[in-house]
Structures are given as structure tokens and as C-alpha cells.
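Repro:
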Amino acid sequence: MPDERIPGKLIGAIVAVGSLAFIGILTETVMTVLFPQLMREFNVDTATVQWITTIYLLVVAATMPLSSYLNRRFKHRTLFLAAVALAVLGSLIMIVGHAFPVILIARVIQGMGSGVATPLMINIILEQSPKSKVGRLMGVGSLVITVAPAIGPTVGGALSSILPWRAIFVIVIPIILLVSLPVGLKCVEQHRPTEEARLNSLQFVSIVLALCGLVMFLNQAGVAVSAAVSGGSATVSAVFAVVSLIVGLGALLFFGWSSKRSFSPLIRLGWLRDPMVLLHLIAYMLLPIVGIGFGYVITNVAQLSLGTSAFLSGALVLPGALIGAFFAPVGGMLYDRFGPVRPILGAFFAAICGPILLLVFSMRLTPVTLAGFYFIFGFGYSLGFSNIMTNALRNIAPQFMPDGNAVFNTCLQFGGAAGTALFSTILSVAQAGAGEEGGATFRHATAVGGSWTFATMIGIVAIAICCLIAAFRIGAKRNSRL
């Protein structure tokens, strides 16, 4: 009988590699809260300063498709050291950079580090975990990643009130070099031989163009809609949005076509022909639209509708996201014990109650009810989300797991970027023509925009639940034939 104990070195490897992903996501959410301060320091407007986050998400999303090739070609320790070097270099540039383009270069480097570290952690878990413990260890991996956006707004709000914004990068460098690096050097092991995989440069360029085009479409479409509603000129943004959509979809179609005909594709996609796995992937892309977008919605509704401070608005996200995130390993344990259906569907039926309650009370919310209803969503979301990828990857051949990991993580990043763009557009449309920020009319308009946003969230989560139900029915039919 195989040894089903969890090796200590595996836990150390998860902590070492996961901490790099944690730091990358943490700094991304911290920077979002610091936008007003950054706008003043670099003398840029809102549309420009948002590139600090947008370019980071784009680079992370563009790097993750490489993870299948990197996992086959290089040893885990080599990839870990590369992620450490990129994280430290990016942080050093953030500390010394005093021009906005230099800050953007630093965010590109940091995005590359996170794009290497996150799928590396998942690949280590999938390759080295005892089979009966995969669910709970995937939950631990999810915990490492989801705690960062949970505490990011609070850390950013607190940091901006007591220290210069560069202090966060001064703090993270010793953590990387004194904790992550030595633990990783001791614990990251190689359990699988490397391959002579080749990098298909044309396919890599096409997937980068696809991701950039689709994210830019969402961004510029939002700008165009907001401008049109407020009476401004939306022509340039609308044209840019259409061109971005055409480029993005065209590059994505080319990538799929080329992958089918390539001897050594960047990502092997044959496993996506399984409708059960494809339905899991759709749900996994839809849910982060709500899960990651919620942080933006809560902080903005709290400040612009309820009149809270930046620090308090960030703190409202903390209970639901942080405590909910700690239940991710519990969700994995339930998956290991009861299988996928009840733990996943039960979690998201609980999660959807959060936006339903927010919609019902949207015009009479208080900071307490806003945080409380988000807690319900965060609890259910964290309990079930990582199990979706776990269950999907367990239904594909082991040799294709790195490819599945690359696709799922890329869709996660894209979903997060889409959520922020979608919900910021909805709020902007509601606020158009409502007067100056802080006025009663503007606050009411923000509350209305919040209600539209919560209704949209309900629809997205409901579609994801339907996809999962359909996937489980397909699985049940297959099992009945065995």
C-alpha cells in the first residue's frame, strides 16, 4: 500500500514557491489602493495610473501559458530561482524608480516572477502529493494565493497612512531572501525527468496578442461606454476596443489552429475536447470575475456611497476574504472525503447568497452589512473554488496536467482582469451625470451602480453553477457505464 503521508519537504516547497506568488499578488492589490498617492507623485491621471495594475495582470497572464513548456524543459529548482531573481529585481527597481515608465518596467518584471511561481506551485502539488491528499494540498495552495488579495487593501490603506508607499518593497525583499529562498533551496525537489521540449515562438506571440487584445478590449470598451454615458467623446476608445477585440480573437483562433497542427505545441489542447473538463474550465474562468472583482466593488461602494475612509473600506474586505480563504484547505479535505459534487456545489450555493443579500439590501447598506454579506460569499467561494481545478485536472491524463494547469491559471488571471473592467464600467455608467463626488446624488448613484453590479454577480455565479451541474451529470453518466 503506498505511503499517503504528506512529506515535510513538500509542505516546505509549497510555502517557498507559494510565498513568491503571495508577495506578487499582495503588492498588486496594495498598489491599487495607493492609486491616488501615485497619481500625485507621478503627475498622471486615473486612466494612466491603472496601467500599474493592468500591465502586471497582462504579464502574469501572458507568462502562465509558458508554464507547461517550462515545467517540461527545466527543473523545478531552476524555475524557483528564476522566480526569486525576478521578484527581487522588480522590487529593487520599484524602490529606486522615480519615473512612471520605470515603475511600469518593474511591474513587468514582477509579473513575470508571479507568472512563473504560481503554476510552479500547482505543478509541484499535482506531481508530488499523495493521491488521497491532493484536494487538501490544492486547498493550501489556494490559501497561499487568496490570502494576499484579502489583506492587500487593508495593508495598502494602513501603509499609506504611516509609511511611504515604497516601504512595502523594502519589506518584501528580506522576506524573499531570508525565508523563501533558503526554504526553497532545501525543499524544492525534482520527481520527474525533464524533456527536450521546444518553445514555439509563433504560438507564444499569438497567445500574448490574444490575451492583451482581449484585456484591452474590456478596458477600452469600459472607457468608451463611460465616456458615451457622461456625454464625452467615445470614438477613439470604441475604435480601439473593436480593433483590440479583432486582434485578440484572431490571435486566439490562430493559436488553437496552430496547436492542433504543431508537433511540439506551446500548450497541448487535446484534453479540452472532453466536455466535462471544458465546463469546469468555463466555471473556473467565470467565478474569478466575481471573486477578484468583489475587492474593487466593496472598496468603491464603501468610499463613494457610504462615505468611509480608504483604510476602513479596505478593512471591510478583510473578514470575508481572509477568514474565507482559510477554509480553502477544509474544502480540499471535504473533496478528498466526499468527492467533487457536494463540496463544490454546496460551497457555491452558499456563496451566491452573498450577492443576493447585497442586492436585496443594496439601497440601505451599512459598512457592517456590506462586510457581513461579503463574508458569506468569501466563505463559500474559498471553500469550493480550488476544488474545481483539482477535479478537472484529475480527469485528464497525467502527462497533460502541466498543460491543464497553464490554461486554468491563465483563465483565472483573465477572469480577474475582466471582473475589474466590467464592474468599474457598471459603476461609472451609474455615476455619470450624478454631480461631484461626495454629494448626496453621487452617493445614491453609486448605490444604484452597486445594485446593478450585485445583480450581474448573481447571474455570473448562477451560470458557473449551471456549468458545474452539467459537468457532474456527464461524469455521473460515464460512471454508470463502467
